[in-house]
Write a structure and sequence with these properties.
Layout lengths: L1 E7 L8 H9 L6 E8 L5 H6 L6 E6 L5 H15 L3 E5 L3 E3 L3 H12 L3 E8 L2 E7 L1 E4 L7 E4 L5 H4 L6 E2 L6 E5 L2 H4 L12 H11 L4 E11 L11 H19 L4 H17 L8 H13 L1
Parallel strand pairs: 1-2, 1-4, 2-3, 6-12
Antiparallel strand pairs: 4-11, 5-12, 6-7, 6-11, 8-9, 10-12
């Protein structure tokens, strides 16, 4: 059995839930159970979820917003309880075809990898790539860099199943035995970086992640967090950045990474992507991550 886990938080306003659950309802996979974990929504999301007419859906309603990684760990615990062989993490700001979940499991088992992502194009322009493979680069501050971001998919998709240093948690399947080696997501990441951290930990354990480019999941990028340059995103992305570098590369690596992050932030200010009033938010995120 494959347990599909999705995390909701005040999602009604974004209009993403009806098409997402329509995609789930259309899945041609008899061995699939869906677990929806709500992080204390207050906007009617819980009422919407309770009214869903899907026979294979389970609800777990948290009393507080515990963050994305900790909620995913609840999904891992439920998968163990149910005796699942696989677990799929799937953001509800995605849309996909009726065979995606089944085909991801089949492809993962054939690959021998620990985890697998499909090709992820932009929802509003499926000809452009949001994710195909990822890497970490010191000149970019060791952020999880999306190779070929915004590229034309026809030009860059040349392999069926390329290896990748990381894969985003918006659509990612694992064999459950993976979590016998790695216990789950690091709960210190509230949102952002928890998927990159998990992939790096798997790499350190000698386990692989691959992308199956014959499979596709369309992503409505950053719609649930207000965009990449919202106050929320700036705070938690930069906090997670510092946690990640310190954990995997040591304190000394921060002397290389913090200046890179500062330069990028200044560029974003100059280009108008960030407002000057947001600079203290960046500082707070960096300081919180440095404290661990």
């Amino acid at each position: 059995m494959n347990l599909v886990v999705t995390i909701t938080y005040n999602a009604i306003k974004d209009g993403i839930l009806p098409p997402f659950f329509a995609c789930l309802a259309a899945q041609r996979d008899p061995d699939c159970t869906i677990l929806v974990i709500d992080n204390a929504s207050r906007d009617g999301t819980v009422e919407y979820l309770r009214a869903l007419d899907l026979p294979n859906v389970r609800l777990l309603l948290n009393d507080e917003n515990i963050g994305f990684g900790r909620a995913c760990n609840q999904g891992i615990a439920m998968a163990r309880e149910l005796g699942a062989s696989h677990i799929t993490f799937l953001n509800n700001d995605t849309e996909f075809g009726p065979d995606l979940i089944k085909d991801m499991v089949t492809a993962l088992d054939a690959s021998g990898a620990a985890g697998l992502s499909p090709l992820i194009p932009y929802y509003d322009d499926p000809s452009r790539v949001w994710f195909v493979t990822g890497s970490y680069r010191w000149n970019r501050g060791m952020i999880p860099y999306h190779d070929h971001l915004d590229a034309d998919r026809a030009a860059v998709v040349t392999q069926r199943m390329p290896p990748t240093a990381f894969a985003p948690g918006c659509c990612l399947v694992f064999r459950m035995e993976t979590f016998d080696v790695v216990p789950g997501f690091d709960p210190r990441y509230f949102v952002y970086w928890e998927d990159s951290d998990l992939c790096m930990t798997l790499k350190e354990q000698g386990l692989r992640i691959v992308t199956d480019t014959s499979l596709e999941c369309l992503h409505k990028v950053s719609i649930s967090t207000g965009g990449a340059f919202s106050d929320f995103s700036i705070l938690h992305f930069n906090r997670g950045h510092m946690l990640f570098v310190r954990k995997h590369f040591g304190v000394m690596a921060l002397f290389a990474v913090v200046p890179v992050s500062l330069v990028k932030t200044i560029i974003n200010l100059v280009r108008g992507r960030m407002a000057l009033r947001q600079f203290p938010i960046w500082i707070r995120g960096i300081a919180s991550g440095l404290r661990g």
